[in-house]
Amino acid sequence: MAHSDSFIPYEAQRISGKESAKRSADYRAYMDQRRSIRFFSNKPVSEEVIKNLIMAASTAPSGAHKQPWTFCAVSNPEIKTAIRKAAEEEEYKSYHGRMSEEWIEDLKPFGTDWHKEFLTVAPWLIIVFKKAFDYDGEEKRKNYYVNESVGIAAGILISAIHNAGLVTLTHTPSPMNFLQKILERPDNERPFLLLPVGYPIDDAVVPLLERKNEQEVIKYYK
């Protein structure tokens, strides 16, 4: 056990095995209700809510606690319009030559195309940037396990969005370098994920899909 001025006591949760089982079952059922939504309302979401979602995501573990992420929260209509225009240009190219026939076929159940209305309709866009390195003055400082760390933070963010009664969609136009340019991010940041955030429209629909069962996703070694 480490003892030094750089450590503090950990305040562990004290719950029974029965309560732990209940909480895990409740959370599993709650998260099973989460769906990716493409039909957003323009109903406002407060900046306080967005801040709380992002700061929850920022509790994620990271390599050497470097926290190699920046979350850009965009509500400005002009910036959202610029992002949509650039994203649709890339998506058009993807749907008309970049993507394989197999990929196009796999996307058919979702009814998607290169039009991305949600980028201007959703009240907020959260763009997650990964920081390949940090600056200490003019000196570059290495970050570790950047993709893994930022991926975990993005997962927590998606969970937090669902917990707040909101919806989102993982949008990854490829390439995404236009986000760095539009948002004027520094050269050590790379776009990782774009999440529209808001409420669904009243008549929103989702594809009829089934998630894999536990036999398909879990392999126990006892």
Question: Notable features of this structure?
Answer:
222 residues; 8 helices; single chain; alpha+beta; two-stranded antiparallel ribbon; NADH Oxidase; 6 strands
> Given this structure, which CATH class is correct?
Alpha Beta
Q: Which structural class is indicated by helix and strand composition?
A: alpha+beta
Question: What portion of residues is helical?
Answer: 25-40%
Give the integer mean of the pLDDT values.
Answer: 94
How do the strands and helices of this protein lay out in sequence?
Layout: H1 17-31, H2 47-57, E1 69-74, H3 77-98, H4 101-107, H5 118-121, E2 124-131, E3 133-136, E4 139-142, H6 146-163, E5 167-168, H7 177-182, E6 189-198, H8 214-217
Helix pairs in contact: 2-6
Provide a descriptive summary of the structure in words.
With 222 residues, the chain is an alpha+beta fold. The chain has one domain (37-200): NADH Oxidase (3-Layer(aba) Sandwich). It is 39% helix and 15% strand. Strands 1-2-6-5 form a four-stranded antiparallel sheet. Helix 2 (47-57) packs across helix 6. The radius of gyration is 20 Å and the shape is globular. The two termini are 28 Å apart. The model has no long low-confidence stretch (mean pLDDT 94).
